[in-house]
Design a protein that fits this description.
Blueprint lengths: L1 H5 L5 E5 L4 H12 L3 E6 L3 H12 L5 E5 L5 H11 L4 E6 L14 H22 L3 E10 L12 H21 L5 E7 L13 H11 L8 H12 L10 E4 L8
Parallel strand pairs: 1-2, 1-4, 2-3, 4-5, 5-6, 6-7
C-alpha cells in the first residue's frame, strides 16, 4: 500500500527550470518513480541534454523543452510541447532575480524577477487548468526569503512571498476541482544559483552554522519532498508550505 501511494507510474508531470540545480534533481526523482516527465529550461542546452541521456539510460519516459515561460511566446511553446494529454503534477522550480540593495534596483529589475518567479506560475496554471487531472498536484518552489529578510535579496524575496500568497489563494479556489496547491521551501542548497550572491561564501557559512545538522540541505532531499507532494501520499496537504531545511529555520 505504501509503495502504491508513492508510485507515479503512468502520470504525466511538468517541471519548469527542470534541468539544473533543484529542478534537475526533481525531474530525475519523478522520472525514476515512474512519471512521464517534461522538463522545461531556457539556456543551458548541454545540461538539458545530459539529463535527458541520464534519464533515458534508466528507461524512464522523459522529454525536454526549451521555452522561456516568463513571456507569452515561451509559454505557448511549452504548452504546444506538452500537448493536450492530462497532467497530474506541475512543479515550478524556475526562478531568477537581481541581487542587490533595494536602492540600487529598478522597475526593470522588478519586472524581470517577478515575471518568472510569480507571474509565470500564474500564467501556466491558468493555461493548464483544462488538462489538470482530478487529484493533480501543483507545487511552487519558494525560499526562506519569502518571510525572512536577507541582504541583497529584497526583490527575489518579495517575488517568493507573492508566489506563496498566490498558492494559498489557488489552494482554496482549486480544491473543489480536486487540485491541490502547495509550496516547497528548501533551506540553503549548494547549486549554481548561489553564484549570483555577492556574499555567497558568507551566506553558506552562516547557513551551516544555523543548521542543527551542521550542513546544507541537498538537492536530493528537496527532490524527495517534491516526490511526496506529487504523490497520493500527500493527498491531505493543500495550501501548505513544506520546509525542507533540516531544522535550520527554527534556529532563527
Amino acid at each position: 500500500m505504501t509503495d502504491t501511494l508513492f508510485a507515479l507510474t503512468g502520470k504525466r508531470m511538468l517541471v519548469t527550470g527542470g534541468t539544473r540545480g533543484i529542478g534537475r534533481a526533481v525531474s530525475a526523482r519523478l522520472a525514476r518513480a515512474g512519471a512521464d516527465v517534461v522538463a522545461n529550461y531556457v539556456r543551458d542546452d548541454e545540461a538539458a541534454e545530459s539529463l535527458r541521456k541520464e534519464i533515458a539510460a534508466c528507461g524512464a519516459a522523459f522529454e525536454i523543452c526549451r521555452a522561456d515561460v516568463s513571456n507569452p511566446d515561451g509559454t505557448r511553446r511549452l504548452l504546444d510541447a506538452l500537448g493536450p494529454a492530462p497532467l497530474s503534477a506541475f512543479v515550478h522550480c524556475a526562478a531568477t532575480g537581481v541581487h542587490g540593495a533595494l536602492q540600487d534596483l529598478t522597475l526593470r529589475h522588478w519586472d524581470f524577477t517577478f515575471a518568472l518567479n510569480a507571474r509565470a506560475f500564474f500564467d501556466l496554471v491558468k493555461a493548464l487548468l483544462p488538462q489538470l487531472a482530478s487529484g493533480a498536484s501543483l507545487v511552487a518552489v519558494s525560499s526562506e526569503g519569502a518571510d525572512h529578510a536577507f541582504p541583497n535579496y529584497g526583490l527575489v524575496g518579495a517575488s517568493k512571498g507573492a508566489l506563496e500568497a498566490l498558492c494559498r489563494h489557488m489552494a482554496i479556489e482549486l480544491a473543489p476541482r480536486g487540485i491541490r496547491v502547495n509550496v516547497l521551501s528548501p533551506g540553503t542548497v549548494l547549486t549554481g544559483a548561489l553564484d549570483a550572491f555577492p556574499d555567497k561564501d558568507a551566506r553558506v557559512r552562516e547557513a551551516i552554522a544555523r543548521s542543527p545538522r551542521g550542513r546544507l540541505t541537498t538537492v536530493d532531499e528537496v527532490a524527495y519532498a517534491a516526490h511526496f507532494l506529487c504523490s497520493e501520499a500527500s493527498a491531505g496537504l493543500n495550501g501548505h508550505t513544506l520546509v525542507v531545511d533540516g531544522g535550520q529555520r527554527i534556529r532563527g
